[in-house]
Amino acid sequence: MHEALLAAAADAPGRFVSGSNVPEADKIRAQLGLLGCFARLPEGRAKGDLDPVGAAFLDIFGTERPLSQKNVAMLYVVGPKGTGAPGGHGPTIDSAAQFLEKVAEMAQNALALVAAYNDQIEDCKLEMPRIETLQFCLVSGGVYMHPESTKKDVAKAILQGLQCGVHGKALPVVRFAYDSHCFEDAAAEMS
Hints:
Structural class: alpha+beta
């Protein structure tokens, strides 16, 4: 489903893509019992660029919700991997500065997708749950982290991305997952 959404989002970087307009994704969405599925790639990408780094996917749960009925969706993002990081596979980013720029871009894109979803359901009066609170973790701050970066550097990049010009009428509250106090330290340093 996400692969089909990625291909559609690659045709329209920086725009909100609904799975209802992507037949292959919509078919899988229905099989999974999801109410909706959406994607967005960061602005400024070349049309047709299928690099998933920075991509954001939003899956809206139906009646089956993991762990709590308050969990209305899953936000899945693809963070960058720094050259020399021990985890995973795929392309890497050599420069720590470029790695952190990609982290910020990913965070901005993720919040832009959630804001666009909330705006769409409000504008079109769709019978879908609004995302009130977004739980955000330290994406690319573990085994994918550039070895010349720290967890606090990654947290700062995420905070910068989330603050970077995302607009919407229905922005969610963002809560950060605890990870060695890095979000708290980054926010205090940025204040």
